[in-house]
Amino acid sequence: IMTESMSTMSTMDAMLLQESKYIATDYLHQASPQRPTANAPLHAVDVDCRSKMVSWCFQVVDFCKFQRETASIAINYLDRYMTTPASALAHTDRKTFQLFAMTCLYTAVKIHEPEAMDPKLVSTLSRGTYTPQEVEAAEAQILGALEWRMNPPTALSFVRMFLDILPAGFLTSAQQETAYELSKFQTELAVNEYDFLSVRPSVVAYSALVNALESISLDEKLMGRISDGLAESVKINTQADKIFEVQNWLYQAVSTQPGNVVQQPKAAAPSQAKFSRRSSFEVS
Question: Is residue 169 scored above 70 in pLDDT?
Answer without folding.
Answer: yes
